[in-house]
Amino acid sequence: MGTKRAYDEGRDLDALTRMWREVGWIDRDDDDDALGLKEFLAAAPTLVADVRGEAECAVSRSTGSIRHEATDLPLCVVAAVTTSHVGRRQGLATGLVAETLAAGVDDGAAVAALGMFDQGFYDRFGFGTSGYEHRWTFDPATLKVPVPESPPVRLGVDDAAEMHALLVRRARGHGSVVVDPVDALRAELRWTEDLFALGYRADDGRLTSFLAGSAKDEFGPYEIEWMVYEDAGGLLDLLGLLRSLGDQVGCVVLNAEPVEIQLQDLLETPMRARRAFRRGGGSEVAHEAFAEQQIRILDLRACVEAVRLQTPTVVFGLRLTDPLADLPGTPWVGVGGEYTVRFGPESTLIDGFEPGLPILDASINAFSRLWMGERPASSLALTDLLDGPAGLLADLDRSLRFPRPSAGWTF
Fold it and tell me: Are 51 and 86 a contacting pair, CB within 8 Å?
């Protein structure tokens, strides 16, 4: 395995820029893409692994927070896991991800999150798959919402700080994420091909809503990556703005349906349009759901104590396994062990089993999903590493009822 060390801009920026271009994450001839990478790396602590004295693998992390119903918990975002063509199949990424999680624990993070390149690789680090995001493709002219009377304002990379501030104070729900570094958002905007961003301001000049994404062709598709608003009125304004584009743009792709709505309710004749799409193979109406993010618990006690139920209390023994314990050379072995968990109005975690309680056997991967409400216990018992008496699974299904979690942030 290569030598692991902290990223140094003077020594490593050229190597990481080459690596990102090599794997196709930034364009080879786009200086603005390279600038975005430089800004991102300056804001995100990064570890690299050397091969023959040069960085050939890198993993970054950012601080942030994740909301569990009404409680915000410190978050470690594992970002930009990148391995060059030279560094593949040498265990470099495995070692750096394990080091990054340990650094997140040292920083005080209670949860870690990442965007996965595919299902399976991050399971070995204790990550469990987040819930589906709903992706809609539709004709914006078919939206049944009013067009705002006031015109929008143009936004761009130079407005990243103001856009980030709105993301921090936006309407947030269960599972929502904030990523702290402004430069992480600025870089994402720089990396967006054919960026367009429009928004609305209050009378005092405050940015109250915006959408941003990629406008690839004259008639679309316009791909919306960010839809951010202070309140429900701002959401309707943004949907009305999309409708106003419908006299030119025939296709919009909304990468994440807002959790407050079911978009189908706001489209004219959605079933007829979907049938026409299937027959003609067009691109005007489609709906798909897919999970691209994963989470895992780092601080088990903090996460358990964040649960505040208004449903019946459930008490059980938890026999928890953590795959990090089996990862050779890992600097942090995770949170595996035997505990007593009480989920109720005041939730608690105690080391060891109290006698006479039913026992839940779970991997940290599955327990993290259960804790966030990604899937109920009975479902996880079918498809993941979670098992317990039928009565306990039924009690957990009845008690752990959370709103659909959604990060609302791309990473």
Answer: yes
